[in-house]
Amino acid sequence: MNFKFWSFPIFTILLLGGIIWVALNDLNFYADANFKCLKCHKGFQSLENIVKEKGITKDEELRNLIRKGPKAGLHTTSSEEDLEKAIKYLQLKK
Ligand code: HEC
Question: pTM of the prediction?
Answer without folding.
Answer: 0.74
